[in-house]
């Protein structure tokens, strides 16, 4: 059994699955966060809130108490340096990795490596983002450990077998770069008597996110009033997402500037088909035409074309849904995630 310490901004939903898998593999897990948000699931791990910039003394005390074998830290250079120094002051070997969401295919320059070394920053990094090109060279400083996914127990929502195709989009509702308006426009152009579909928009209503605007949120409300096939669900807790993923056929992430974008990947455990912008890190998990569809949002009509192909072809939906389940059970399984993490532990 090993002790693993995460020092991260918050206990994001994808960390829920990773920490649960490690605990079920008999490891001890501690999580220190900058902030605790509403709706998080702390069933397995109750994070310790240490604030956004804990000082060196606080991190030393944390590491002294936890005595980790592996430290994974994300934050400012000062935070990463303090955590690294605190971990290495023990008279035993501790593996320390910084966490980021830069693709594993993005090389760490020689200059960056030198600055990291001089600044006390760990040389190696963990990223959950594989990159779009599977055959591209990998950064030797990077270890790609995708967050695992798993289907959780849930009460199925009632769905008639001959009902409409259900499309889900998860993202902050006031943040323009999430591009829900482009998804609505694409579906509006496809609406016809022969195409039956429904769209569910889910996300935080916060106006505090970068680029958030009251007018953008209001536009979503207006769209819901104008189109009976759109439903908006704001500020839903993580516990409700399981049933929502399972109740939808397709999960669309049309965002730009999205380092990861985990919602369509969380949905694959339920066979929900991911349609992901190539500007989202999670597009790297999508084998186009096998486990979902990738969409270049800079190309006019690309999203409309992708959605039309799914709405009009039940056989394609079935094939892609089966492919997503296989992806969840293999490459993105909890067991695979645990094995990748265990490979980082110091050797006795």
TrEMBL record:
<dbReference type="InterPro" id="IPR001296">
    <property type="entry name" value="Glyco_trans_1"/>
</dbReference>
<keyword id="KW-0328">Glycosyltransferase</keyword>
<feature type="region of interest" description="Disordered">
    <location>
        <begin position="326"/>
        <end position="348"/>
    </location>
</feature>
<dbReference type="GO" id="GO:0102710">
    <property type="term" value="F:D-inositol-3-phosphate glycosyltransferase activity"/>
</dbReference>
<dbReference type="Pfam" id="PF00534">
    <property type="entry name" value="Glycos_transf_1"/>
</dbReference>
<keyword id="KW-0808">Transferase</keyword>
<protein>
    <submittedName>
        <fullName>D-inositol 3-phosphate glycosyltransferase</fullName>
        <ecNumber>2.4.1.250</ecNumber>
    </submittedName>
</protein>
<feature type="domain" description="Glycosyl transferase family 1">
    <location>
        <begin position="163"/>
        <end position="325"/>
    </location>
</feature>
